[in-house]
């Protein structure tokens, strides 16, 4: 699909090249107008979809981080803490990083929907979004997988029989982290599409 | 960027629309020829890059699977086996699946470079490649992260002090799996670009 702007330019160029007929036929102009209305609607819908994914990522990863951090040991208590296990530290910190990043991206997405332009310069924004989505999605999945394996190995051991609440809390945190990863992966698909669109068409939307 | 074929067609169409001048000016034809030579070179280079990534994935994941499967317990021996630990089963089987898939993809890639067409119908091939690359990359990373956590927890325990060879072998297998994941992730980027290209231009290459 070509952008309507470019289609119109092409038609005019070719018209000029082929014998100096300066008035283009009215059909392309109507088409262009029709296309631009349709593409604006599609663009708006895509932007809103991205915002929804970002917001879902923010909610899940923030909840996961809070659940994990709230296992911190009270002074004098003997119950285990998330800082005692490297895999749980990885889960908590990865979720916190993703939550911060998603907060920024929700802001950037709202900015784009209301203002029509990207928050950073377009080329920077599309690459920034895609690279971070991709890397953070892998990071979050890796953290959650390691966390799952640790949680499985803790089951049935003293840690979990003595302080069951700690194990349940970290299980919930890991599950929430997987949900966050799901939405971050979906965001990565859409932002990947925007990058490809930008490379191919010079614009973040192909519509 | 438009495909040269389409560009030429457009020029001819517009020429016919604007007053029946049937001979297009020679400039677009030269441009089209120039574009097509450049794009064929680029297409070839991209195809070869994909083949290299596929082949690297195949080598690493096959090696990882073999390393993992070779820890199988001999009859009567007391040394541990990969089947004793769920995380190591996950690593071994994920690597075997990725190796099989990569073997198919190396074949498809060679087919495409030599024949110029995709092995499956184009729309099916681009979506098949991308979906599998994406899902298998996540699967392999998840397996390797879980395997790493297990290997860490085994360190210093009886399993590793009594049969050190088993621990070293599974460590190597996990490391090889991470290398396989790296190349699979790179393949996923390229095949994602092909899908986006296909959606936008109706052809798997934007060149």
Automatic annotation (TrEMBL), chains A, B:
Biased composition (Polar residues): 1-15
Membrane topology recorded in Swiss-Prot or TrEMBL: Multi-pass membrane protein
The keyword Nucleotide-binding is annotated on this UniProt entry: no
GO cellular component: plasma membrane
Record keywords, A-Z: Cell membrane, Membrane, Transmembrane, Transmembrane helix
Compartments where located: Cell membrane
PANTHER family: CASP-LIKE PROTEIN 4A4, CASP-LIKE PROTEIN 4C1
Transmembrane segments: 48-69, 90-111, 172-196
Quaternary structure and partners: Homodimer and heterodimers.
Protein name: CASP-like protein
Casparian strip membrane protein domain location: 45-183
Region (Disordered): 1-26
InterPro entries membership: CASP_dom (IPR006702)
Domain of life: Eukaryota
The family this protein is said to belong to: Belongs to the Casparian strip membrane proteins (CASP) family.
């Amino acid at each position: 699909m070509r952008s309507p702007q470019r289609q119109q330019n092409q038609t005019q160029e070719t018209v000029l090249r082929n014998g100096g007929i300066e008035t283009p036929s009215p059909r392309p102009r109507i088409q262009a107008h029709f296309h631009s209305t349709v593409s604006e609607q599609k663009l708006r819908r895509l932007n809103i979809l991205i915002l929804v994914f970002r917001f879902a990522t923010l909610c899940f990863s923030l909840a996961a981080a809070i659940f994990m951090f709230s296992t911190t040991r009270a002074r004098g208590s003997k119950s285990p803490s998330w800082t005692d296990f490297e895999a749980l530290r990885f889960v908590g910190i990865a979720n916190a990083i993703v939550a911060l990043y998603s907060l920024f991206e929700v802001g950037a997405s709202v900015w784009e929907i209301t203002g029509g332009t990207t928050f950073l310069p377009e080329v920077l924004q599309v690459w920034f979004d895609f690279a971070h989505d991709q890397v953070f999605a892998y990071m979050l999945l890796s953290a959650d997988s390691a966390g799952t394996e640790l949680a499985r190995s803790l089951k049935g051991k003293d840690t979990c029989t003595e302080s069951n609440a700690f194990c349940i809390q970290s299980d919930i945190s890991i599950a929430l982290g997987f949900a966050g990863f799901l939405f971050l992966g979906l965001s990565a698909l859409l932002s990947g599409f925007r990058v490809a669109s930008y490379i191919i068409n010079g614009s973040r939307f192909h519509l």
